[in-house]
Amino acid sequence: MVKFKELMKTIQLKWNGLSRSKKIQASAAAVVTLVLVIGLPVFAWFTSERKTATVIKINAPTTIKIGAGNEEPVEMIDLSNINVEERLDDENKTRITEGTYVFCVTGKYLSKYDLQIARTTNIDFDYELYRVDSKTYEDVISKGITEKPTVGSGYEIAEYKSGLDGNTYYYPYQTSNSTDDKMQGNVTVKGGFLNAKAGENSHTIGKGEENIGGGTTFHTHNYSSYDKVNEYAEPLYWQVTGLPVTGQVGDVGFVDYYVLKIKWENKNLTNNKETDMLYITARKSVD
User: Fold this and answer.
1) What is the pLDDT of residues 146-179, one digit of tens each?
2) Start-to-end Cα distance in the chain
3) Where are the alpha helices (DSSP H) in the chain?
């Protein structure tokens, strides 16, 4: 303690003996030394964090959405004009028994996704889902060909009339069942109902459908304890999982086209019919 006091007294005497200019220089040197002592560790920390940021991969948020043909907004999908009494302008006035409706799935930063179709059953329609062959007919689709192309055997063409530019776009799809890769063709058989009709000739679903977790059925999830729901208003849920994207994965994103085919062959239907609700949703597949 004595030595420390003597040291401080010696420093004070030397300080008092310095000229004014020397005192200013000494004070500046002390400040610079203090800045270096504090600044170097802080700079080292920032440098370390920056290097860490360059080696840690940051996953971009997944995006996925439903659109209409020609990558137009989903609002352009129109199922309100199904004319079940329409006939071809031929000699026999052949009755038209099906309609095709094009939609697309677009997204970024995912490699597989699930599609679900939920619908009521007021109208006795049959539904089939086909995946457009984006590989074989890439030029037709990507370039927006507005003249009907020639396609190979086993293919049909769905037409999409744009409500934005007035053009008609064409989407070839294979009519055979899709293979295990689910890249094209009829994917209807690759999916299944999450709930089901009670019998072959019955629309009754009731409370017997598959649970969606925690003992909650689709019925109780939608209507809670209410049990007076019209059987045709009880929605059916169909889903296909693990559909691989056909476009690029990443910043560029992808677009996959589908054809929803609605059929009423051998059905006793008129245009004075009920109304149904149909929802198409997509989500990233959970591995």
Assistant:
1) 678 788 888 999 999 998 988 889 898 998 888 8
2) 71
3) 2-16, 20-55, 138-142, 218-223
